TrEMBL record, chain A:
Keyword Transmembrane: yes
GO molecular function terms listed in the Swiss-Prot or TrEMBL record: ABC-type sulfate transporter activity
Bilayer topology term: Multi-pass membrane protein
UniProt organism field: Posidoniimonas corsicana
Role according to the record: Part of the ABC transporter complex CysAWTP (TC 3.A.1.6.1) involved in sulfate/thiosulfate import. Probably responsible for the translocation of the substrate across the membrane.
Entry GO CC: plasma membrane
Taxonomic superkingdom: Bacteria
Name by which UniProt lists this protein: Sulfate transport system permease protein CysW
Broad class of where this protein is predominantly found: membrane
Taxon lineage: Bacteria, Pseudomonadati, Planctomycetota, Planctomycetia, Pirellulales
TrEMBL record, chain B:
NCBIfam families: modA
InterPro entries: ModA, ModA/WtpA
Protein species of origin: Posidoniimonas corsicana
Binding site for molybdate: S72, V180
Record field: transmembrane: none
Annotated protein name in UniProt: Putative binding protein
Protein family: Belongs to the bacterial solute-binding protein ModA family.
UniProt keyword annotation of Signal present: yes
Length: 282, 267
């Protein structure tokens, strides 16, 4: 205690300027990074929305409204919104039991299962798509034809990656909940599922929303697996990320950047919501 | 207060939400067989003419056409892995030959032709009169191992004896890109001072200037189409392939987007 006391005393006088230099250094690094991110967004906005520049003139002055007027892109927006919501809901339905199992359960091979959960996060995105495509070869042809290059492939590809992120969040949330309350409920005669529903679930409600929103944002950013497994078929399996690819492939840079802005706006909205919900839950 | 376990309520709400969302999905595919449909793997660079031609063919023949875009090389891998689909429309007949050798597709029908050209900003175009001039610039070139344009460029420049010059320039300050679209975008964004692309691709970038160099005139890409062996509708697929290559309106559509329709100088 005495050792601890001496430096604190000097700190009040001598450390004040050093401390502020420290914070200034941190703030500078943070500001530079934030500036880089904002500069990227500003460059996108200027490139897409300002007239002139090097992009093709065919798009006219309003590439964003031109993009939204295209029925294919509207279809893509519609499919993106609905498919991402479905895949994030499915992710939650899988992430909640798995997160709980990994947090509370004790079984042989748990470390291996835990590592397997991270496969979609560490695999290169194209490999996820290719693996799904190859996997479907083992299914009966009618089922394979109903999935590969069809809307279910979009949802499956999004789900595989998004759920890995949701599982991480849910597992962390269950780790932080108080085991004792659950044990008290059990000792009072509650079954496992009753204890889970009445005691654990209310504690992880915020985390579930955060996990769902993160899964949603992740599903929207999905591209590689979608391109390989669901294809980039206009008016069918095209989502916003594949719209960017399709517009780029024919040199419509402004259209591609305009659609990118839509995606950025949706992601920022979702991530901010996730943060707010997370803060409130905390 | 309800005595139902919140877990079950949440599960029921989730399942109901899923059911509603599935109904909200756009264009849920109809029952197979109610109208014939063709699934076409199409090189992304061909999107503009193919979209227009497929729409016209669909309305004239009552056939639903789904077009999947990608790089010709990626599409070939997808065809092999998925074993579904009716037609393969590639920007380079090498991929069609490979598909045929692997038993994935039948013989190819030539559809159109493209020639390699140099693209740059209008200000820089005046400085490019030879391959040597080109080698002084920061270049974006299609990868000779991945992109059809890269392979054609390398073959033409090797024949002309100046591939080393371009290869050195790229390794010094330029970049090899996997698709011709990436090359054109590099030049349009100013990331590269010049690039070599197909003339049909260049025509999709009106803001760029095109320079035709004699050394590149032999660098040609043959757009072709082949019916896949796993096609569920081979008759319709063959009919659409004929429509692409022989129909006057289709040929006009290709010409409109800077392609040289096949047959114009083949015979």
């Amino acid at each position: 205690m005495t050792d601890h006391h001496r430096p604190t005393k000097t700190a009040t006088n001598a450390h004040a300027p050093r401390l502020s230099a420290f914070w200034i250094a941190l703030a500078t690094v943070c500001a530079a990074y934030v500036l880089l991110l904002l500069a990227m967004l500003a460059a996108d906005a200027m490139f897409a929305l300002l007239p002139g520049g090097q992009a093709d003139a065919a798009n006219g002055p309003g590439p964003l409204s031109a993009a939204l007027a295209d029925p294919n892109i509207r279809h893509s927006l519609h499919l993106t919104l609905v498919s991402c919501t479905i895949s994030s809901l499915l992710s939650l339905m899988v992430a909640t039991p798995i997160g709980y199992l990994l947090s509370r359960g004790s079984f042989p091979g748990k470390r291996l299962v835990d590592a397997v959960m991270d496969i979609p996060i560490v695999l290169p995105p194209l490999v996820v798509g290719l693996s799904l495509l190859v996997l479907m070869q083992w299914f009966p042809p009618p089922l394979r034809d109903a999935v590969v290059y069809q809307t279910p492939a979009v949802i499956l590809a999004q789900f595989v990656v998004a759920s890995a992120f949701a599982i991480r969040v849910m597992r962390g949330a269950f780790d932080q909940t108080d085991h004792r309350q659950e044990e008290v409920a059990r000792s009072l005669g509650a079954s496992r599922s009753q204890a889970f529903g009445w005691v654990v679930l209310p504690q992880v409600r915020g985390a579930m929303l955060t996990a769902g929103l993160l899964a949603w944002a992740r599903a929207m950013g999905e591209f590689g697996p979608l391109l390989v497994f669901a294809g980039a078929t206009r008016g069918k399996t095209e989502v916003l990320s594949t719209t960017v690819f399709l517009e780029l492939s024919v040199g419509n840079l402004r259209g591609a950047v305009a659609v990118s802005l839509l995606m950025i706006a949706a992601s920022v909205l979702m991530l901010t919501l996730a943060r707010l919900v997370g803060d409130r839950a905390a | 207060m309800s005595r139902i376990n919140p877990l079950y309520r949440l599960m029921a709400a989730g399942l109901m939400a899923l059911a509603v969302l599935v109904l909200l999905l756009p264009g849920t595919p109809g029952v197979v067989g109610e109208e014939p449909s063709l699934h076409i793997y199409c090189a992304a660079a061909l999107r503009k003419p193919i979209e227009a031609i497929a729409q016209r063919y669909g309305s004239e023949h009552g056939v639903r056409i789904n077009i999947q875009y990608g790089g010709s090389n990626t599409l070939l891998s997808q065809i092999e892995a998925a074993r579904v689909g009716d037609l393969f429309l590639a920007a380079d007949d090498v991929y069609l030959s490979t598909a045929s050798e692997r038993g994935l597709a039948g013989n190819a029908t030539p559809v159109a032709r493209m020639t390699a050209v140099v693209v740059s900003s209008p200000e820089r175009a005046g400085q490019i009169r030879s391959i040597a001039d080109l080698a002084k610039l920061r270049l974006s070139i299609g990868s000779p191992d991945q992109a059809a344009i890269g392979r054609a460029t390398r073959a033409a420049l090797q024949a002309a004896g100046n591939w080393e010059l371009i290869d050195d320039a790229v390794r010094r300050s330029g970049v090899y890109k996997p698709t011709v679209g990436d090359v054109a975008n590099d030049v349009a964004l100013g990331a590269a001072e010049a690039g070599i692309v197909w003339d049909a691709v260049a025509s999709q970038h009106p803001a760029l200037s095109v320079v035709r160099l004699p050394e590149l005139s032999s660098a040609q890409g043959a757009v072709g189409v082949a019916v896949l062996t796993g096609s569920h509708h081979p008759e319709h697929a063959r009919d659409f392939a004929r429509y692409l290559s022989h129909n006057e309106k289709s040929r006009h559509e290709f010409a409109k987007w800077g392609f040289e329709p096949a047959g114009a100088s083949d015979h």
